[in-house]
Amino acid sequence: MLKDSKIRRRPVAVRPSRIRRDPLPVAPVKKAVNAYPTEREVWVVVIGVIVFALALSALMFGISDVTAK
After folding, report:
1. Distance (Å, rounded) from C-alpha 36 to C-alpha 52?
2. The overall pTM is greater than 0.70
3. How far is CA 37 from CA 2, 47, 50, 65, in A?
């Protein structure tokens, strides 16, 4: 059998942590997002699509003209 050790350690008193923590941030209230675009945004999109289509058609006609000769 094992004998009891004669070397005894004194128990350590438990202390509260010295690390100070900031409180958790409160999440800000999110505003409702307007899902419907304004009239100006609609017109900008329409004009952008038309300009893009015209650019592609001009590029297509230019390439076909160069390669046809």
Report:
1. 24
2. no
3. 83, 15, 19, 41
Q: Which two tokens stand for residue 37?
A: 């675009």
C-alpha to C-alpha distance for 62 and 67, rounded to whole angstroms: 9
> What are the helix (H) ranges across the chain?
39-68
Taking alpha carbons only, the member of 36, 59, 56, 38 closest to residue 48 is 56
What is the per-residue pLDDT for 31?
84
Instruction: Write out pLDDT tens, residues 30-59.
Output: 888 777 888 999 999 999 999 999 999 999
Per-residue pLDDT tens for 20-29? Answer: 777 878 888 8
The alpha carbon dihedral of 45, 48, 52, 58 has a sign of: positive
Decide: helix, strand or coil at residue 2: coil
